[in-house]
Amino acid sequence: QQTVRRHTPRSIAALDAPIVVLTAYTTPMARLLDPHCDMLLVGDSLGMVVYGMESTLGVSVDMMVAHGQAVVRGSEKACVVVDLPFGSYQESPQQAFRTAAEIMARTGAGCVKLEGGQEMAETIHFLVQRGIPVMGHIGLKPQAVHAHGGFRTVGRGDEADQVLRDALTVEQAGAFSVVIESTLEPLARAITEKLSIPTIGIGASPACDGQVLVVDDMLGVTATPPRFVKTFASLGADIDQAAAAYAQAVRTRAFPTARECVGMPADHTADNA
Ligand code: KIV
Ligand code: NA
């Protein structure tokens, strides 16, 4: 049997084509996305997307491990990156190392992502020096939603200089790539021009080296997705229609029929087996 070589942080950083990234949280979705994506991100957005939380602050290491395992099981080609959740790495480089090592050991993922710029440079360096490939995440940092004052565009005025400094220090610290979230276009463009590592944008700009979206947003499952999302399917509407059709079929006893039932007189599947 042919073995597929999985993308690694190194091979991702070496890609020159636009890098294709989507979030994934479950095995069946990872199976469907894997053939098309360079990376699958097990984002802590799962707290909001899968669990209905108001922010990502309540996501635990165990939740990230469970979903990280599911996505690794469902993929063979994409590089799987798992988010370090809030409170599991900000205290010290040592705490970050322990968390990253636990997540990688328990999931089999080959790298982690953490939010932060200058303030996380020492931590990124510490992890990278010890064999843990790190993806950075700058601009809007959802784990800092309370400090940001909400989910908003970042990088107006003086803020732009800080985000650019964040980008440079994250690269210098050894990150193999960096997510830029919800920044003004000129800022994402300037960062992408200055950095040699690939930038992955979400609500950032077409100038980024790659793009990431939350899969439920791009599939049209999320009720009110952020403005920067493009929906490539209408699964929310499909599911609504399917549930309505099912409900109707059950209530009218149109489902199940003999075809969907084992052992009824009209069922010949047992004989044919
Ligand atoms: O958690 C997440 O899904 C993310 C992406 C939005 C970049 O961090
Ligand atoms: Na995240």
From TrEMBL:
<dbReference type="GO" id="GO:0000287">
    <property type="term" value="F:magnesium ion binding"/>
</dbReference>
<feature type="binding site">
    <location>
        <begin position="44"/>
        <end position="45"/>
    </location>
    <ligand>
        <name>3-methyl-2-oxobutanoate</name>
    </ligand>
</feature>
<dbReference type="GO" id="GO:0003864">
    <property type="term" value="F:3-methyl-2-oxobutanoate hydroxymethyltransferase activity"/>
</dbReference>
<feature type="binding site">
    <location>
        <position position="113"/>
    </location>
    <ligand>
        <name>3-methyl-2-oxobutanoate</name>
    </ligand>
</feature>
<comment type="similarity">
    <text>Belongs to the PanB family.</text>
</comment>
<feature type="binding site">
    <location>
        <position position="115"/>
    </location>
    <ligand>
        <name>Mg(2+)</name>
    </ligand>
</feature>
<keyword id="KW-0460">Magnesium</keyword>
<comment type="pathway">
    <text>Cofactor biosynthesis; (R)-pantothenate biosynthesis; (R)-pantoate from 3-methyl-2-oxobutanoate: step 1/2.</text>
</comment>
<keyword id="KW-0963">Cytoplasm</keyword>
<dbReference type="GO" id="GO:0005737">
    <property type="term" value="C:cytoplasm"/>
</dbReference>
<feature type="binding site">
    <location>
        <position position="83"/>
    </location>
    <ligand>
        <name>3-methyl-2-oxobutanoate</name>
    </ligand>
</feature>
<keyword id="KW-0808">Transferase</keyword>
<keyword id="KW-0566">Pantothenate biosynthesis</keyword>
<dbReference type="GO" id="GO:0015940">
    <property type="term" value="P:pantothenate biosynthetic process"/>
</dbReference>
<keyword id="KW-0489">Methyltransferase</keyword>
<dbReference type="InterPro" id="IPR015813">
    <property type="entry name" value="Pyrv/PenolPyrv_kinase-like_dom"/>
</dbReference>
<comment type="subunit">
    <text>Homodecamer; pentamer of dimers.</text>
</comment>
<keyword id="KW-0479">Metal-binding</keyword>
<dbReference type="Pfam" id="PF02548">
    <property type="entry name" value="Pantoate_transf"/>
</dbReference>
<feature type="binding site">
    <location>
        <position position="83"/>
    </location>
    <ligand>
        <name>Mg(2+)</name>
    </ligand>
</feature>
<feature type="binding site">
    <location>
        <position position="44"/>
    </location>
    <ligand>
        <name>Mg(2+)</name>
    </ligand>
</feature>
<feature type="active site" description="Proton acceptor">
    <location>
        <position position="181"/>
    </location>
</feature>
<dbReference type="GO" id="GO:0032259">
    <property type="term" value="P:methylation"/>
</dbReference>
<dbReference type="InterPro" id="IPR003700">
    <property type="entry name" value="Pantoate_hydroxy_MeTrfase"/>
</dbReference>
<dbReference type="InterPro" id="IPR040442">
    <property type="entry name" value="Pyrv_kinase-like_dom_sf"/>
</dbReference>
<comment type="function">
    <text>Catalyzes the reversible reaction in which hydroxymethyl group from 5,10-methylenetetrahydrofolate is transferred onto alpha-ketoisovalerate to form ketopantoate.</text>
</comment>
<protein>
    <recommendedName>
        <fullName>3-methyl-2-oxobutanoate hydroxymethyltransferase</fullName>
        <ecNumber>2.1.2.11</ecNumber>
    </recommendedName>
</protein>
<dbReference type="GO" id="GO:0008168">
    <property type="term" value="F:methyltransferase activity"/>
</dbReference>
